[in-house]
Amino acid sequence: PTPRTLLLTGAAGGLGTLMRSLLPEYGYELRLFDVRPVEGEPDAITADLGDKDALREAVRGVDAVLHLAGISLEAPFEKILRSNIEGTYNLYEAAREAGVPRIVFASSNHAVGFTPAPRADTPPDSRVLIPVDTPHRPDTFYGLSKSFGEDLAQLYWDKHGLETVSVRIGSCFAEPTDVRMLSVWMSPADGARLFHAALTAEEVGHTVVYGSSANTRLWWDLSTARALGYAPRDDSEQFAAKLIAEHGELDPEKPAQSHLGGRFVDDPPVWPY
Ligand code: NAI
Ligand code: 15L
What family does the entry list (predicted)? Predict the structure, then answer.
């Protein structure tokens, strides 16, 4: 059955803004949560993930949570600890206490960012795709917090029966903007399809999936996502000629071009606040 009331954390962010416009057509009523005000949404809850009372209030009566809030780039460990590690724990505790049955957790490819990518000079149809059970190889403190979130989700399933789909999102933006993104891009429309599948599939326990479109140059295995009912419709290949003409093919000798996490392995973009 489709959950009706969905708590969307991180609603003011890039992905939160995309999902605010795309998810209502799947039948969700959204309750919004973010530490920053959500533009044009006076009923949004403006609170930090450190505020346990606000979280208890936020989860009351919801059918599921789409947990996007957190620092989305690299940052000093103390900041990651507060927002992503303690913050995600606080959310899970509030959800457990309230009996919320399912969370969809925005994990990231950076939980496994130091995994070597299939070489760019291997033809796409003979590449060995990275499975979801590849060991955690975080590329940053940020990626480490996503590895933690996946383990936390496993614990809450095993111990408390709270279900999670952990989505290791690639790059969910309107368009891919570099050559790596040809492999890891998730179109916003496919993002909404995947989150909807993760929210509605039966008996997920704790399931880990990669989050991307059906890209010709895909690096990872989408079979666990497809098993939830996800049927991606987009492919980044339409952007390939222009991006490759501009930047060239990925260089397998350069760490930032030959690992899943891209530049996060040596020069991560840093959280601005
Ligand atoms: P974003 O940085 O645009 O949005 C994150 C939101 O979380 C912001 O609005 C921020 O105010 C809020 N937030 C941060 N710390 C908070 C706290 N302590 N309490 C309450 N709210 C807090 O990031 P984006 O791109 O929208 O990503 C959303 C989620 O998806 C993040 O968890 C990110 O790590 C994950 N993700 C996103 C990817 C993408 O391609 N956009 C790729 C992989 C993972
Ligand atoms: C992420 O986890 C970030 O939140 C997002 O801003 C992108 O950098 C994305 O990964 C990526 O790997 O492209």
Answer: Belongs to the NAD(P)-dependent epimerase/dehydratase family.
Q: How far, in Å, are 58, 104, 143, 222 from residue 27 at the CA level?
A: 19, 17, 32, 25
Residue 42: what are its φ and ψ, rounded to 5°? -65, -20
Token look-up 């959950």 returns 3
Cβ of 15 less than 6 Å from ligand 1: yes
Side-chain-facing half-sphere of 115: CA atoms under 13 Å: 22
Catalytic-residue membership of 156: no
Supply 139's token pair. Answer: 């590329």
pTM higher than 0.90 for the full model? yes
Instruction: Flag whether 73 is in a domain.
Output: yes
CATH of the domain at 197: 3.40.50.720
Report which ligand 1 atom has the smallest distance to the Cα of 67. Answer: 32
Half-sphere exposure of residue 78: CA atoms within 13 angstroms, side-chain side: 0
**102-134 tens-digit pLDDT:** 999 999 999 999 999 998 888 878 889 999 999
